[in-house]
Design goal:
With 135 residues, the chain is an alpha+beta fold. The chain has 3 helices and 7 strands.
Amino acid sequence: MDQSNLTAYCVYTIVDGKTLARAAKAGHSGQFEERKPWATASKLWQKALSSGSSMPVLFGDATDCSRLLYWGLLTDVHVQDGVTRFAVDRVRKLSGKHAPQELVLRSSGKKIAPGFIRPYAICETPAFVKSKRAV
């Protein structure tokens, strides 16, 4: 997947930290499931595909949501019966320390509040993902 043409928006979600660490160590695509429908994410991803862009996914650890730890590029999204199954190319660690509160929500234009407990959000793609430091 091409990292040079990232979409304006990304998905922030949480997954068990051990699962993320295994996916990153394996160095290949990760398959994940979320028990919420990612209707907007799916539409944005389809739009990205048609324009030749790539949509980032940023991950926090579901057991400690205080930091963004990993990221990758969305390669597949299926929403069915209220469940979303999605695939992310090579899950990799983020460089530096970043908190979810650095992310700006697409819906409001405001940063994620401390204590944000939703399992996913559509956010503006942050500069630290667009930079070489994210690789």
